């Protein structure tokens, strides 16, 4: 499909902001996926193209955190494999869902994400005793990985919250390891969706450039400001984009409610 230069420039700007947000609080896909769909990209292609650009951004954040010595790659190798397998299964499932159904489901998922971001408790900055063992960590990563392959937005926040609440990690440490797990799930979903032929390569790569820059900025800000500023902005933007999607006359959810 063809998009105008102004639309591409706007999507690149959204990708930059999403990269910053994703590195700090997770949930950057709450901006990029609805923005892609609002630009006329079909749901499955929007999710696939978002995986391309977000994979680069997440990889950039992983590099930034690794340079600061924040990631224990040895401990999180098996959870990363679990996230990879779960995400591949989620992306496989996505390609077998009716696109019309998916177009109606995405606004519902976005609203659920907004509710989650609004009521989620604040995370501690200090490491504590883990409530569960290594096996549970792998299972958690696989389950959230499945969601990431199927849809994606909010995955980073889910992972960070689980690492803090269930596995006793401090906020900064949890954020850093979330990027590593998220990179594994992003790559798995991307490979699966590339095989399915759903990625818009040029648009995805252009957005990836912006996402990389945003992720570098966000990774440096994460240690300083955490998510206290980003989450309110994320909620407002997600609500605005949900309204935009539901304003489309052809949206099946809108037709069902009005019909």
From TrEMBL:
Subcellular location: Cell membrane
Bilayer topology annotation: Multi-pass membrane protein
Keyword Transmembrane belongs to the record: yes
Gene Ontology CC terms: plasma membrane
Organism, scientific name: Lysobacter spongiicola DSM 21749
Family: Belongs to the 4-toluene sulfonate uptake permease (TSUP) (TC 2.A.102) family.
Cited InterPro entries: TM_pro_TauE-like, TSUP
UniProt protein name: Probable membrane transporter protein
Annotated TM spans: 6-31, 100-120, 132-150, 156-175, 187-209, 229-246
Pfam families according to UniProt: TauE
Domain of life: Bacteria
Organismal lineage: Bacteria, Pseudomonadati, Pseudomonadota, Gammaproteobacteria, Lysobacterales
Keyword Transport attributed: yes
Keyword annotations of the record: Cell membrane, Membrane, Transmembrane, Transmembrane helix, Transport
